[in-house]
């Protein structure tokens, strides 16, 4: 029997809607993550490294902020090609390497993890595929428990990865996950309450050619993920910047023809975006503010989400961005479930 065909965006629509239940399930069944966190805490590292690609790389950047701010440890993002292309084998004794991959099947991340373990690192695999090769080569492994994802664009696996990484870092510091206890309910509210704003944004930006996304602190990861989602589903010329970096040169290219998606949640990162948005607004940019502090910044459109502790805001603020990417893709005649030239699993070396 042939596989039944689905309409454009049906998988992505369904998977966005699944996220409240997925997130609630992860928060409730956090014991496996807590066990890995305790094992790490028993032998604290002196440094942390994170290896990832694509959306998982944005989740890894989020984890970098968590590790530096909440654990007080230096952290960095691995360049896999230093291992796979240049055969670099640094001394990684007392280093924690966290490899993040939805599929757990990318050859470069597998090689990085194997090499790091061979040269002294404690390795942790964070993946949505417990049977993956990555889980098999790491010292410790965490299943993000998002279930099968059919759309090419990652939605539920991205937010599930964010929550898993938060619970892992929070567990290492001895936390109990109290800030995400109601994350499923909050995600449901975020999707419901953002619906009208997302529809207005789709109508406003369906014909835009280029867009800049920006955020500070924890929300910089959301700006990067927003840029990727808009590029891969709607084929927009999207570019992400830290709000600080945007003012160091790229702002010169901002004018009346520029759309700016600004991620502004309550906290230090969102507060640091005020001057940035003042500057781009003066230059005529059309600003869409997304986040729990959206109402407090200059913008043409605003989409709010429920306020949380700042370090967990990226789990919620990306939800209306996913809906925006989906809606723009459909409005522009595309199918976000099957972006041209892309596959669900990308294998790089």
What does this 3D model show about the protein?
The protein is an alpha/beta fold and 349 residues long. It has two domains: 10-180, 3-Layer(aba) Sandwich (Rossmann fold); 188-331, Rossmann fold. Helices cover 47% and strands 15% of the residues. It has 13 helices and ten strands. It has helices spanning 10-28, 31-42, 55-71, 80-84, 107-118, 133-137, 156-172, 183-205, 220-234, 243-247, 268-271, 273-282, 313-331; strands at residues 47-52, 75-77, 95-101, 122-127, 140-143, 210-215, 237-242, 259-263, 286-290, 301-303. The strands form two sheets. The chain has a five-stranded parallel beta sheet with strand order 2-1-3-4-5, with helices on both faces. A five-stranded parallel beta sheet has the order 7-6-8-9-10, sandwiched between helices. Helix 3 (55-71) links the parallel strand 1 (47-52) and strand 2. The radius of gyration is 19 Å and the shape is globular. The chain starts with 9 loop residues before the first helix and ends in an 18-residue tail after the last helix. The model has no long low-confidence stretch (mean pLDDT 94).
């Amino acid at each position: 029997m042939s596989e039944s065909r689905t309409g454009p965006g049906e998988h992505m629509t369904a998977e966005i809607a699944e996220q409240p239940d997925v997130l609630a399930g992860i928060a409730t069944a956090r014991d496996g993550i807590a066990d890995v966190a305790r094992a790490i805490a028993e032998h604290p590292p002196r440094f942390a490294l994170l290896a990832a690609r694509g959306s998982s790389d944005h989740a890894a950047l989020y984890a970098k902020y968590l590790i530096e701010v909440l654990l007080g440890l230096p952290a960095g993002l691995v360049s896999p090609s230093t291992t796979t292309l240049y055969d670099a084998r640094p001394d990684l004794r007392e280093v924690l390497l966290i490899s993040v991959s939805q599929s757990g099947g990318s050859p470069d991340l597998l090689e990085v993890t194997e090499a790091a373990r061979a040269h002294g690192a404690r390795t942790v695999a964070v993946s949505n595929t417990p049977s993956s090769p990555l889980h098999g080569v790491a010292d410790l492994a965490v299943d993000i428990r998002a279930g099968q994802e059919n759309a090419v664009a990652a939605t539920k696996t991205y937010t599930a990865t964010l929550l898993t990484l938060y619970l892992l870092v929070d567990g290492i510091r001895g936390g109990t996950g109290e800030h995400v206890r109601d994350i499923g309910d909050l995600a449901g509210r975020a999707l419901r309450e953002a619906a009208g704003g997302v529809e207005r944004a789709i109508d406003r930006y369906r014909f835009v050619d280029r867009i800049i996304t920006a955020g500070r602190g924890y929300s910089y990861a959301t700006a990067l993920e927003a840029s990727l989602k808009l590029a891969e589903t709607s084929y927009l010329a999207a570019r992400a910047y830290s709000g600080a970096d945007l003012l160091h040169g790229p702002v010169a290219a901002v004018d009346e023809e520029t759309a700016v998606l600004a991620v502004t949640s309550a906290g230090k990162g969102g507060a640091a975006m005020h001057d940035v948005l003042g500057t781009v607004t003066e230059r005529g940019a059309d600003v869409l503010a997304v986040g729990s502090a959206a109402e407090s910044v200059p913008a043409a459109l605003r989409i709010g989400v429920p306020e949380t502790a700042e370090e967990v805001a990226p789990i919620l603020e990306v939800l209306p961005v996913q809906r925006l990417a989906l809606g723009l893709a459909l409005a522009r005649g595309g199918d976000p479930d099957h972006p041209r030239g892309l596959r669900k699993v990308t294998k790089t070396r």
